[in-house]
Write a structure and sequence with these properties.
By secondary structure, the protein is an all-alpha fold.
Length: 265
């Protein structure tokens, strides 16, 4: 027995024999979960890099790609003759780029392709092989569609819900982008009357002619596109231009066509 304050000497070798060093497995188990995961991910990453490096084809520089078995290149003239009429696409030129307007004569050889004459071009336009030029196309005015309103109970319920929402917009946010229903105020995102324009086609399809005419009259007098303000291109395209174009195709009113196609006026 040792008393308080007695000096004690330890035999290091004897202690090593009594308490041997921990094995690798015991050291692994003593690590935290984070340390184990970090070591495991590092080992997996090293294994993947070594595998890719070993499997890399020296001739191609890409893993698992054998240049001897590669697919033929469409630009290789020895593999595919791109001249008309032997090419799969009859509008392909001698070097590959799509070119409209080559002669269909079977006797035409490679390098001897000439442009179509006026008569040949008109003939191919007539049969639909060449699209008609934009300046020659006649754009017809859309016919006005007539909607008689809801025809059953479900449609009545939908129209009634829309009337309720539109009434709130008319009373508290008329002419502005959005209605804030809780505070009964409005919010202007782009100052482009987003809700009004975005709802034109819905109002027209539901047969709400009075609401449609009121919104149209407001746009004719108040709608402006010369505001110096940053806007979201996507939202403006789908809501403003899309709303005006849909109203034009449904009602046939030229006002909506002019505002959407020539916004700088």
């Amino acid at each position: 027995m040792f008393g308080y304050g007695d000096r004690v000497s330890y035999d290091t070798e004897a202690l090593r024999n009594i308490y041997p060093q921990k094995s690798l497995w015991r050291r692994w188990n003593s690590l935290s979960r984070f340390q184990k995961n970090l070591i495991s991910l590092t080992m997996v990453g090293v294994f993947v890099c070594v595998f890719i490096f070993v499997s890399m084809d020296k001739s191609s520089g890409l893993p698992g790609v054998n240049m001897a078995n590669r697919l033929p290149d469409w630009r290789d003239q020895n593999i595919l003759d791109l001249s008309y009429p032997n090419a799969s696409n009859k509008f392909l030129g001698p070097l590959g780029p799509p070119v409209v307007g080559f002669n269909k004569d079977e006797s035409v050889k490679r390098g001897d392709i000439r442009p179509l004459s006026r008569e040949e071009e008109e003939e191919q336009i007539r049969v639909g092989e060449i699209p008609q030029k934009k300046e020659d196309q006649v754009v017809s005015k859309p016919k006005k569609l007539i909607f008689s309103g809801p025809k059953n109970e479900k449609q009545e319920a939908v129209v009634s819900a829309f009337r309720h929402a539109w009434k709130g917009y008319s009373e508290y946010a008329w002419g502005h982008d959005h209605l804030k229903p809780v505070s009964r105020t409005y919010n202007d995102w782009f100052t482009l009357k987003l809700t009004m324009i975005d709802s034109l086609d819905t109002i027209y399809i539901m047969g709400l002619n009075e609401e449609f005419d009121k919104a149209k009259a407001h746009l004719q007098s108040e709608f402006r596109l010369d505001i110096n303000k940053d806007v979201n291109v996507f939202e403006t395209t789908i809501r403003v231009m899309g709303g005006l174009l849909s109203a034009y195709h449904l009602s046939g009113d030229e006002f909506f066509s002019g505002k959407s196609i020539r916004p700088w006026e």
